[in-house]
Amino acid sequence: MDSKMLQNVTISQTTTDCVQSSICRTKKIEQKNLENLQIVWVDANIDTADANIDTADANIDTADANIDTADANIDTADANIDTADDNSQTKSLLRAVINYLNIFDNTIDCYEYIDTVKDEKVFLIISVYDEKGEYDKALEYYEKAIEIQIKSLPPYHPSLATMYGNIGLAYHRKGEYDKALEYYEKAIEIQIKSLPQYHPSLATTYTNIGSVYNENSEYDKALEYYEKALEIKVKSLPQYHPSLATTYSNIGLVYHEKGQYDKALEYYEKAIEIKMKSLPQY
């Protein structure tokens, strides 16, 4: 290749590199803009939720005042009925009671509405902190959310298990394995009692527990929980589902760490077989 041709190739390559670099910078800018838009969207929703809470609070104050008035009316009606000679004052009492009950129902609606709005606000905030990796702040709001759910849901409701699992995951990401296990175990206890035997959510929690033990170098315990997850997935998922490949790979990794290379290869090969049949080639 002569020097002129080499120079052209070099210039072309340099141009290509510049274009690729420009594309990369553009993509980074677009990604940053997307993240900023997401945060703005969440902030806007939080502001709306705050306004709704203020409105609900005002409605509750009005309803409470109406209840006080209804109480006074009932007291008056009670006094009247003691001296009533006909049915007219009895009817007044009944009207006062009905009015009281209607006001009470409206107040309950207000309280239920404000709880709903607060739930939405809490979960929006949690999603932002999770995405940003600010797990301490996420945990602060998870605790608020779980407090709301404990008061409003039955003891073994699946949503409680989901919340406990999310809290466990936050501690897991922080490297606080004991706390992670504490919440994963609360989640699995509820899931065992509230979900079908081979529900995929059980497999997810077993996998998370196995991962904690694996990262803590407790390999036998890790295998125990990965195998529980595998049993559920084998019975609940299609034969070549990608999630099965993940579990086979997890088990292979544990055997790898234990130095049992033949067993590790056995599970790695199962994982790769599923991936070849279930994932796109390119």
Automatic annotation (TrEMBL):
Keywords: Repeat, TPR repeat. This is Uncharacterized protein. TPR repeats lie at residues 119-152, 161-194, 203-236, 245-278. PROSITE patterns: TPR, TPR_REGION. Transmembrane segments: none annotated. Gene3D superfamilies: Tetratricopeptide repeat domain (1.25.40.10). It comes from Rotaria sordida. Pfam families: TPR_12. InterPro entries: Sel1-like (IPR006597), TPR-like_helical_dom_sf (IPR011990), TPR_rpt (IPR019734).
